[in-house]
Amino acid sequence: MQTSADRKDRHQYPAHWEADVVLRDGGTARIRPITVDDADRLVSFYEQVSDESKYYRFFAPYPRLSAKDVHRFTHHDFVDRVGLAATVGGEFIATVRYDRIGADGMPATAPADEAEVAFLVQDAHQGRGVASALLEHIAAVARERGIRRFTAEVLPANTKMIKVFTDAGYTQKRSFEDGVVRLEFDLEPTDRSLAVQRAREQRAEARSVRRLLRPGSVAVVGVGRAPGGVGRSVLGNIRDAGYGGRLYAVNKAFPEDLTDVDGVSAYRSVRDIGDHVDLAVVAVPAEHVPAVVAECGEHGVQGLVVLSAGYAESGAEGRERQRALVRQARAYGMRIIGPNAFGIINTAADVRLNASLAPQPPRPGRIGMFAQSGAIGIALLSRLHRRGGGVTGVTGVSTFVSAGNRADVSGNDVLQYWYDDPETDVVLMYLESIGNPRKFTRLARRTAAAKPLVVVQGVGSAPQGHAVRATRLPPATVAALLRQAGVIRVDTITELVDTGLLLARQPLPAGPRVAILGNSESLGVLTYDRCLAEGLRPSRPLDLTTGATAEDFHGALARALADDTSDAVVVTAIPAIGEASPGDAELAEALRSAAAAVPGKPVLVVHVELGGLAEALSAAASTAPQAVEPAPGTEGGARPPHRPAGRPPTAGAETGAPTAPGTPAEGTRLIPAYPAAERAVRALAEAVKYGQWRREAMDPGKVPEYDDIDEKGAALLIGELLARGEGLTVSDAETCELLGKYGIRVRRALPAPTPDAAAEAARTLGYPVALKATAPHLRHRADLGGVRLDLADEEQLRRAYAELTELFGKPEELRPVVQSMAPRGVDTVVRAVIDPAAGAVLSFGLAGAASQLLGDMAHRLVPVTDREATSLVRSIRTAPLLFGWRGSTPVDTPALEELLLRVSRLVDDHPEVVAVTLEPVVVAPHGAGVLGATLRLAPPPARDDLGPRTMPAY
Fold it and tell me: What confidence tens digit (pLDDT) does each residue in 759-811 have?
């Protein structure tokens, strides 16, 4: 019974410390604070720990916990004494605790900033990464409570625990005395600790998806007794696909004497299955799902695919049902695909799993596909499957995931799996929403450095079933940030498949130069025009005439590929009439053999009503894009293993069928064929841009250091300003002071509430001056007449002042200021904002109509490198105005780039700066002057990507 003393000792329960985590083996656990109510759980946990582990924890035989021990280990103040437990199924599997200590090693309170930490992990769960996850979370808790350093004493024989500490990546010291290893380490995250954390995250999340996609046994729960129905259909699809593992049919309504359904062993409950079950496919009404989840959890099932509907997509009641589903599954350490899912497919020869509603699995191949809705998943699969009426061929799928409401497993998790999956060369994703844009961008950048990632992203409101973080960024900005991360973003499913097939079949182009040849002059000209429209550099089409033979095509393609002035070749072909006209197979063989001689350049075919040609061209093996080494510093440190470029699989391996007589030999390139020039050229343009990104990613640049930046002074000033309130727009004087600490000088402006004050301000600043109205409706609106420039003397100043007040109203309404004239140049605008979902974003454009009316702004994620600043300036459509357009004087873009880098540093160093705008920034032939600035401070948004690993909260 809890006494009054207990209640007094118990501080408010820190619910925000609770978290679900993915462990090293792909299972899940819940981490939460230990409370006084956990006494029985703690005793039960300790009884299951081996004598050796107890000895390592207490440095002596310690068979059982005393009542005093139990009280000590369950009573915490959540400040100086904290305990966390990792639980599965509500029971402890590991614990960690810290006790704050002083310089003498005795218990202490703040301001002491050191604590002693100790772990205990059940032997059955050692090796799963539980201690590493607990260390991340207890370290975050300690930092929150003002603790900056942990100490730990470990017996030398306890090598596993020593490794947990030494591998964490923190700055540490190690000593040995009195037979004990003493470790001390700072808790401030380092680049290495963050890299270690993200590498562990990738391995854990990839393995959790691998357990779902490569199960050794599957139970379908909800198999109907009569043919038809979702459960019976999925069971048939798994069986017919040739699944190599153990398969079970489950329905509580089965008669007790029923032993099989369609040749599959049948059971009334998952509990009745004598063997272990890795994956359960759940196809029962939503109200019966909790009972099924409990059965699966108690039987040790590793993951669930929930096809059942009636969850968040159906409204508020369904959303709560979905939350309960996720909480229940995670309590048992299981991951969920769904609910409301279409299913999963793995075409690997040793798996052959079609746990989906697709009656025909796709052909085996090297494309990974992810969709959220079932309808989109069907459309994607059918586009790849069809051999006519569009992009044709037999390039197939490695794995397919349709996540439905993605309550648990999301696109981020599957991307972690595909990153180092040797069976996947290209990733195609249809994302109706992005739940965690910051993490997705980070994972996309790493994946795109190794293999192409093509994405269609919904731009409307997220579907009802999806939990999505709110973002204030417009869709165009989000799209630009995805492209910066190497994502090939397209607009439609057709473009998704067109681009994906090209990248799966052909090497990346080395540049934008395109050779065009074919037997139709008009189709060649159309292709030429589309290349120009897409920003490519085509050469004049080579017309082979309608009488061209297969040998003519072969020779022309061979010459084009050998020509150093082209990076890619588009072949156009139309039906021809006459005895000498080549047949489909003959022409396809001619093109393939010519392409095989020069394998480093991509070849595409635009065909018109030549279904046979398209199919003949596709009767070969795919070739992955050329290998490109990842950028230095890329997460993971090395590119994942992939199939060598010179050793593609055989045609039979690609199509899932034996190699037919006449099929091209192994190693022959498969050439994609398109029914329209615009589709082929659009796919090629995306491949060109992606290839350029890959080359640039090899040298991403660096974030420069500036000696005149006063980071500590800026932090002190920000602290003083925030002490006034939660969020505020800083005054002009304080804005200038804060920006000045980062070397950003704002040209001085003095208030002019009267004509005399204006004249005095001008005398202080020196003529010539500008007179500006700073009222919100006139600020930065020179087009409205609220700005008067080049006022050379007091007479002109007073006349301008009178005109402004006559036109726009009283001085108190106009808020006029006087500012010294800046050198003439190009007016630009620089903005930075911290978005709660995407993170800090730096934006640049020309001031005025270009950015406000036309939206001509470029964007980069903070921190920005020197190379990114250079590309940012050149990314806007109006960039030629900065570089001497039509004979104008080029401006000082290096000074502009330095300003961008300084703003990036400010926002990155101080996330309390949630918004800053410099407008206008006049970029002159020599230097860049900031004429106006606004800045907003607020407590920084939570950065879950810098904290301990967690799964999305439910």
Answer: 999 999 899 998 988 887 777 666 677 888 889 999 999 999 998 888 888 88
Could you read off the pLDDT of 218-247 as tens digits, one per residue?
Answer: 999 999 988 889 999 999 999 999 999 999
Residue partners of 107: CB distance under 8 A and separation at least 6: 80, 99, 100, 101
Q: What is the DSSP string of 673-739?
A: EESSHHHHHHHHHHHHHHHHHHHHHTS-------TT--HHHHHHHHHHHHTT-SSEEPPHHHHHHHH
Angle at 931 between CA 929 and CA 934, to 5 degrees: 120
β-partners of residue 772 are: 787, 817
* Burial call 813-831: b when 16+ CB within 10 Å, e when fewer: ebbbbbbbbbeebbbbbbb
Angle at 820 between CA 817 and CA 825, to 5 degrees: 115
Closest CA to 54 of 130, 119, 128, 133: 119
Please give the span between the terminal C-alpha atoms of the chain, in angstroms, as a whole number: 31
**221 within 8 A of 247, measured Cβ to Cβ:** no
Residue among 224, 372, 361 nearest 285 (CA):
224
Distance (Å) of CA 888 to CA 106, 190, 352, 881: 73, 48, 64, 8
Q: Which two tokens stand for residue 834?
A: 């911290």
Q: Measured between alpha carbons, how far is 618 from 605 in angstroms, rounded to an integer? A: 11
Peptide bond into 863 cis (omega under 30): yes
Residue 653: HSE in the Cβ half-sphere, 13 Å Cα cutoff:
15
CA dist 446 and 427 (Å) reads 13
Residue-level pLDDT at 614? 60
Give pTM, 2 decimals: 0.83
CA distances 490 to 453, 456, 493, Å, are 11, 5, 8
